[in-house]
Amino acid sequence: MTQSPLLPWDQSPDPRAILKEADPAVFEAIEKERRRQQDHIELIASENYVSAAVLAADGSALTNKYAEGLPGARYYGGCEYVDIVEQLAIDRAKKLFGAEHVNVQPHAGAPANIAAYMALLQPGDKVMGMKLSHGGHLTHGAKFNLSGKIYEFHGYGVSPQTEMLDYDAIRDLALEVRPRLILAGASAYPRKIDFKALRQIADEVDALLMVDMAHIAGLVAARLHPDPIPYCDVVTTTTHKTLRGARGGMILCKAEWARKVDKAVFPGLQGGPLLHQIAGKAVALGEALQPSFKVYAQNIIDNMQAMADELNAAGLRLVSGGTDNHLVLVDVTPFGIGGAIAEDALGRAGITVNKNLLPYDTRKSMDPSGIRVGSPAMTTRGLGQEEFRQIARWMVAVLRKPDDGELIASIAAQVKEMLAAFPVPG
Ligand code: DSN
Questions:
Q1: Distance between CA 154 and CA 338 in Å, rounded?
Q2: Which site from 215, 335, 406, 416 is most exposed, i.e. has the minimal number of CB atoms within 10 Å?
Q3: How many CB atoms lie within 10 A of CB 154?
Q4: pLDDT tens digits for 28-51?
Q5: Ligand 1: residues whose CB is within 6 Å?
Q6: Is 203 one of the annotated active-site residues of the chain?
C-alpha cells in the first residue's frame, strides 16, 4: 500500500517559516504586531494572551472543514474528528460552568447575543439592558445596533451617587416596562453584579433573565465572581477575555432552551462553525479547569486592586470608588485632560488603554472623561502587584504631563525594559 506523504503534525515544517517565504508582506505585519504586543503594556480590559497550545489549535487544519450541524448530526461528511473537538469543547464548558447545555459555535460575542435573543424573543418584545453609556454593550440594545432595531430595549444604569447598579431602580423600571427579558452584564463596570437580586426582579415581573458574562467569564469560572448560571435562562460569553481562550463566543443555557438556542445559532444566524476556533476554545476550557487558572483569576483581581490604590492615591477619581473585578474606570479630568489625550499619551509611553465614557459623562464618546484599564492580559504575562503599582506610577506621571515628550520617551524605554522579563506566551 502506498504510504501517504502526510507528516505527523508535530513533525511538519514550521508554518511560520512557510508563511515568511510565501507571503512576506503578511508575515512582516504579523511580526510587527507580535513585537508591539511584546513591547507594550496591554491594559485593554477585554484583551488577553492565549497559550501556545490554544494558538496551535486555533491555527490548525480544522480551518479547512465545513461542519454545519452539531456533533453527530452534521450536514457534511468527514466530520468524525471535528465532532470529537466540538464535543470536548461542549463537555469542558459544561463542567467548568455547571451548565445544562452549551453551544460553542457563535463566532463572537455579538452573534452569541443576537442568537440568544432569537431563541428567547419575538421581534418587538420588550427587553431591559444596561445602557451603553453606563457600561453596557452595543448589542444590549444600542439604537444603531441590530438589537436596538429589532427589540424594544429600555436601558437601566448606575446610581448617580454610588455609580453602582441600583437594584431598586431596576425593579421600579421592570414594574413599569414589564419586559419579556431582563439582560445583565457589562463591558465597563468595575463591580460585582448581583444575579440573585436580578432573578428576583425577573420573577416578580414574569420576565426571563439573560446574562452576558463576556468580561467576567474567567472570574466566574474561578468562582471569584457571583455565578449567573444558576439564576439565568441563558448566559452568553466570549471566550477570549478573562477566560483567555481563542477568540469567539459561546451560549450556556437551561436544558429547556437548548433546542431553540441551537437552532438560533444554526441555521438561524450562522452557517458553518469555525472548527479551528472551536479547537482553540476546547484547549482554553481545558486550561481553565486546571487549579492554576484559579490562581490566575485571583491574581487578576489582586493586581487590579493594587493598581487602583495607586491611581486613587495620586488623585485620579475611580468610578464607584474602586473595583471588585478585572477593570477600573478612571476619571482623568482631575488632571485637566480628557480620555482621548490620556489614551494617546499613554500609548506613546507604551501603555495601551482605551478612552471610555463614564456614567453621566458630559463629554462626547470620542473624547470622554475617562479611560478603562484592565489587568487580565498583563497578569497572564506574569506581572504581579509590584509591577502593577509601578505601571500606575508611570501612568500618573504621563497623565500629569501628556505633552512632555522626553518624559514619555523615558517611560517607554523603562516599559520595554520591564517587559523583557515577561515574554508574550506563544
Ligand atoms: N469590544 C469589547 C470590549 O472591549 O469590551 C466588547 O465586545
A1: 29
A2: 406
A3: 17
A4: 999 999 999 999 999 999 999 999
A5: 46, 109, 137, 187
A6: no
